[in-house]
Design a protein that fits this description.
It is built from six helices and 20 strands. It has helices at 35-40, 42-58, 88-97, 177-182, 241-248, 277-288, and strands at residues 2-6, 14-18, 24-27, 64-65, 81-84, 112-115, 127-129, 136-137, 140-146, 162-169, 172-173, 195-196, 199-201, 210-211, 214-215, 219-223, 226-229, 259-264, 301-306, 318-324. It has a six-stranded mixed sheet with strand order 6-5-18-9-10-12, with helices on one face. A five-stranded antiparallel sheet has the order 4-3-2-1-13. By secondary structure, the chain is of the alpha+beta class. Helix 3 (88-97) crosses helix 6 (277-288). Strand 14 and strand 15 form a beta hairpin.
Length: 325
């Protein structure tokens, strides 16, 4: 099934069930009014939501056009937003870019940070930037939405707690990061609001491309209309979502609606480009001794999307422009 949250003037928006081709949608209410409500009562809500999804697929005239709606992030706010850094190539490159060595546990212990989740940007919301000197960067990622995860969950059990899959632009302010990390207390100011594509999908919608807690499809990013990168999100995800869930659940439980990110999708094959500017800048430094690609400037446009093997969009598109505050 596929879901989106239509803007209806409320904090949590209106839950819509979306057709597989992303062309039509129907309200899930009044039985289920928001995506968080569906997640809170997943087992009870599922038959109702599946019935609406089946109706959409059986009747091509049913529903309203998705193109006529204003879409929010599938979860406009969430109880928690936890982001990993599961792609080794990305970790190595961005650490080099800021003059830091990768951790000794790079391949054995996942990197995790917790970001702000009270406000997420919608898929077409601008990226508000107060100062271009902060080094604004996009980061194209995959994310999952969790059900209730008990403390002590093991990797082998993790799959049953994954409710939905999404894609995200996890915006970073690169030039603020080093000073924050020097304090030894993690990211905060350097991680503004993230934006999610309009539609969240159940893992079964990905078919064979969802395998062992990874999405085995390219994630495409465009900068100002030019393809910037299309690395495959599957093979080089060193820590799967199953690994990440087991890691975060070591010392505490998580409530339904928690979002867990993969970190920036990255491949060692340079022909696949990058999912963030920091990687490209580091490659430039390695090859030429200097970084020449600037961070995002006012007016720059970032687009992120994932397609199935037939060329159909799975999650819809993130389309954002950097604007002054």
């Amino acid at each position: 099934m596929k879901f989106g949250t239509r803007d209806n003037g409320t904090r949590d928006g209106e839950l819509m069930v979306v057709s597989r081709d992303l062309q039509r949608c129907l309200p899930a209410g009044p039985e289920v009014n928001s995506l968080q409500e569906a997640l809170d009562h997943w087992d009870e809500a599922l038959p109702h939501l599946k019935n609406i999804a089946d109706m959409l697929e059986k009747d091509a005239q049913l529903g309203s056009k998705t193109s006529d709606q204003t879409w929010r992030s599938p979860l406009p706010r969430a109880y928690e937003w936890i982001d990993g850094s599961a792609y080794i190539n990305h970790v190595v490159l961005v650490r080099k870019a800021r003059g830091a060595n990768p951790p000794e546990t790079l391949r054995t212990d996942p990197l995790i940070y917790q970001g702000g989740s009270g406000i997420f940007l919608g898929p077409k919301d601008n990226i508000p930037l107060a100062d271009t000197a902060w080094g604004c960067d996009f980061e194209s990622e995959v994310a999952v939405v969790l059900g209730d995860v008990p403390q002590g969950t093991k990797k082998a059990e993790a799959e049953k707690y994954i409710r939905l899959v999404m894609i995200v632009n996890d915006v970073s302010l690169r030039n603020l990061i080093p000073a924050e990390l020097e304090k030894g207390f993690g990211f905060f100011q350097s991680k503004p609001a993230s934006a999610f594509a309009p539609f969240a999908v159940t893992p079964d919608e990905l078919g064979s491309f969802w395998k062992e807690g990874r999405v085995h499809l390219p994630l495409k990013t465009w900068l100002n209309g030019n393809l910037f990168g299309d690395p495959n999100a599957g093979p080089e995800m060193h820590f799967s979502f199953h690994d990440l869930i087991a890691h975060i659940a070591k010392t505490r439980s998580y409530t339904a609606g928690t979002i867990l990110g993969s970190g920036t999708v990255s491949n060692e094959d340079r022909s696949r480009g990058s999912s963030c500017l920091a990687e490209k800048r580091m490659i430039e430094k390695i090859d030429n001794g200097t970084m020449t690609t600037p961070f995002l400037q006012y007016g720059d446009r970032v687009e992120i999307e994932m397609f199935d093997n037939g060329g159909k969009s799975i999650f819809g598109r993130i389309e954002q422009t950097v604007t002054p505050m």
